[in-house]
Write a structure and sequence with these properties.
five-stranded parallel beta sheet; 2 domains; binds iron/sulfur cluster; alpha/beta; 9 strands; binds zinc ion
Length: about 300
């Protein structure tokens, strides 16, 4: 993927008249590289401020896979908070052990933290679970993303605890969040639909924050390209099994025809949460009887997995 050189007749930036690099269909305008960068930085700062995602004294661990969303997240947080003495940023990379895929993204993560001078912790599935994802998934490839998601969440928490974090930031963007809303509807999972991962945990676990939750995937890709930090990375070999993949292409097509659909899905999540449960549901309030982690039933998802196959 690369940016095409501007030609006469190409759309101009709605703010300055320079050649545009993106059409923000939901906002009905075109933006040049400079105005796209400024727009994204401002919207991310507003999300962080309005939801109090980061406050003075925070140690924020940034989940850095090395892919485009997490790269953009670290760049943005470093630009917004990099010079602040009262906020510490630490990148955490999880090495699941996916051969032919993870090596390249880990290299990309290492290059970025070196360039920015950000502290970096790497946690592997080997250290935490005693094996690589490739080995753990043998014969269960069709469930790859559900299993990987549960394990990776735990590995990230291990990294965040090592860093002494008060917040755990992930690079989920608007497309991811809207896809999750739709997937939870398709699965009939109302509890998960209305769960707010940014809710106050009362100190029981490290709150997760999603500063890019209102930024579209194509805006993130263009943000990276105009700064020359885009690199084509391989796709995870297990992604072909994911329901998300189908939901993603369906939702992108609907968003193209009906701009603003993703934002409306996010609004619906809030409305459903308020209307049906009286308030937006927070994170699970129970405690796993085996490991003591917060969960909604008697056993957390990780302990359920342990019973089924982990050592
Ligand atoms: Fe894990 Fe699925 Fe993502 Fe691959 S695509 S890293 S298996 S969640
Ligand atoms: Zn447990």
């Amino acid at each position: 993927m690369s940016l095409k050189p501007a030609r006469s007749g190409d759309p101009a930036c709605s703010l300055c008249g320079e050649p545009a690099v993106i059409h923000q269909r939901h906002a009905g305008r075109h933006l040049c590289g400079t105005h796209l960068i400024a727009d994204i930085e401002q919207r991310v700062s507003e999300t962080i401020a309005s939801r109090q995602q980061i406050v003075p004294g925070d140690c924020v661990t940034v989940a850095l896979s090395g892919g485009k969303d997490s790269t953009a997240l670290l760049l943005l947080l470093h630009r917004i908070f990099g010079s602040r003495k009262d906020i510490r940023l630490v990148a955490v990379t999880v090495d699941e052990g996916i051969s032919g895929y993870r090596e390249a993204t880990i290299r990309s993560a290492e290059d970025l933290v070196k360039r920015l001078g950000v502290e970096h912790i790497t946690v592997s599935f080997w250290e935490v679970f005693g094996d690589s994802l490739d080995t753990l998934l043998k014969g269960r490839e069709t469930q790859a993303c559900s299993i990987c998601g549960i394990l990776r969440k735990k590995a990230l928490v291990v990294g965040a605890e090592q860093a002494g974090a008060t917040k755990l930031a992930t690079g989920h963007n608007l497309d991811d969040e809207a896809q999750s809303v739709l997937m939870n509807v398709l699965r009939g999972d109302l509890t998960r639909l209305v769960r707010d991962s940014g809710a106050d945990s009362g100190g029981r676990f490290i709150p997760r924050i999603k500063p890019l939750m209102y930024i579209q995937e194509k805006e993130i890709a263009t943000y990276l390209m105009v700064q020359g930090v885009w690199s084509d990375l391989p796709e995870c070999p297990y992604a072909i099994h994911a329901l998300r993949r189908e939901v993603r292409s369906m939702l992108s097509a609907i968003e193209y025809q009906h701009p603003g659909t993703m934002l409306r899905l996010m609004e619906n999540k809030k409305v459903v949460g308020t209307a049906f449960l009286g308030k937006t549901a927070g994170e699970p309030v129970g405690t796993c009887r085996e490991c003591g982690d917060p969960c909604s039933g008697e056993l957390c998802q990780l302990c359920q997995l342990r019973h089924s196959f982990l050592r």
